[in-house]
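> example.struct
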């Protein structure tokens, strides 16, 4: 997670949920994320037959590029134009740009608009005030019959004490998301998965809240 150098004020914390703060973060040259695919994506999607995929909150495109390399036709979506521009650059460098489209959307108001995908995935998107439950419902609307929805985020943890309370409240357990699943979906995975990472030179255990559901 980001911005862990100091405690955020309420105003700063609220801004972190808005496009402007992400535009700023992605405006510079420095890479924000590793470029490696997220482990729960690799764990859950490697066994699926490639088709069409939508990654919402794709950031710099690490997951989008991995999916394209696995043979998926991918749409990378984010509300940050700078993030999408970076992701498109990385996809060019990786030689997979021809398998990828980009879509500027806000997950909080997302509507599939008649489009559907065999896989809809999102990693570490944390809208405030429990908003992820509503986002799950919106993203589910973009899953094709027989397709999968994969939602991964941070579980609330002591690790995040540097963050403001409103930001910590944006984190969720996998089971918290179940009310967002519309009828016609079966939950296949509802798990907290521990993951060891090194942040600022310190080894910490964090939990990946992982929800995988299939549209029947
Ligand atoms: C923590 S980053 C994760 C990026 C990427 N999924 C990954 O795992 O490396 C969250 C991303 O979600 C985007 N984002 C945050 N809120 C969003 C929203 N409401 N709608 C669309 N994108 C959003 C940010 O611009 C950022 O790129």
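> example.seq
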């Amino acid at each position: 997670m980001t911005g862990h150098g100091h405690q955020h004020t309420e105003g700063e914390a609220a801004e972190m949920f808005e496009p402007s703060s992400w535009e700023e973060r992605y405006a510079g040259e420095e890479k924000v994320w590793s470029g490696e695919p997220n482990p729960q994506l690799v764990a859950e999607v490697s066994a699926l037959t490639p088709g069409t995929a939508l990654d919402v909150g794709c950031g710099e495109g690490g997951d989008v590029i991995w999916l394209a390399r696995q043979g998926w036709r991918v749409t990378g979506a984010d509300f940050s134009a700078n993030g999408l521009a970076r992701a498109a650059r990385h996809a060019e460098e990786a030689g997979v740009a021809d398998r990828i489209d980009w879509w500027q959307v806000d997950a909080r108001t997302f509507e599939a608009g008649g489009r559907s995908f065999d896989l809809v995935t999102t990693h570490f998107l944390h809208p405030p005030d429990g908003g992820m439950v509503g986002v799950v419902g919106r993203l589910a609307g973009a899953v094709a019959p027989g397709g999968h929805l994969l939602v991964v985020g941070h579980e609330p943890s002591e690790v995040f004490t540097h963050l403001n309370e409103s930001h910590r409240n944006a984190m969720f357990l996998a089971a918290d998301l179940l009310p967002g699943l519309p009828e016609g979906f079966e939950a296949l995975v509802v798990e907290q998965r521990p993951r060891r990472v090194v942040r600022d030179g310190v080894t910490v255990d964090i939990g990946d809240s992982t929800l995988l559901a299939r549209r029947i």
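> remarks
Residues 1-8 have pLDDT under 50 and may be disordered.
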